[in-house]
Amino acid sequence: MTATTRWWWIRHAPVTASGLIYGQDDLVADCSDPAPFRWLAGVLPRDAVWIVTQLRRTRQTAEAIHAHGPAGSGPALARPQVEAGFAEQHFGDWQGRSYAELEEIRDGEWHRFWLAPADTRPPGGESFAEVVSRVAQAVDRLSGEHAGRDIVVVAHGGSIRAAVALALDLDPEKALALTVDNCSLTRLDHIAGAAGSHAADGAHSWRVGQLNLCHNVVR
Are 90 and 23 in contact (CB under 8 A)? Predict the structure, then answer.
């Protein structure tokens, strides 16, 4: 018997951090343009589990979707589940610094990060490979807890790349080439009980429905 759990991944609305590495800094989202939220409210499932991260920009984005249409209505969005496993990559000592500043400093860690970004851990932070691991653990757990449901996650560019890497069995280095725009929609279907990959909880496979779909580039 199979159960399909549909994951609807949305990257948060833009933040004002021009030229800065912000990672897990808790910045405010700019939700002033109603167009993407109206579109998302029209395409998202009505009866879904809603998940945000501990960073306020994800909750603000979810609230903006709720304000512009019926997809966000009901108690699930009023009290979304907070999942720290889906937070953005933590860039440690580099957070709050500009790309230009770090390039000027040219310390060895910064240089190695851009040569091997997936495996290199910024000072006091985490590598993208570690992000992939923690996102995978959270996805596996929640796919079991909410099997057969629709799960809407308002998350971050890094965690959505990690989710796609899990679904497509991509090397973390390859996943960094993926584009994830603000307010974009990515849908990944987890099919439990299907022939294919084998996880600890039994056979399962993934189906990719949409990648980085945006309101102004609807296909």
Answer: yes
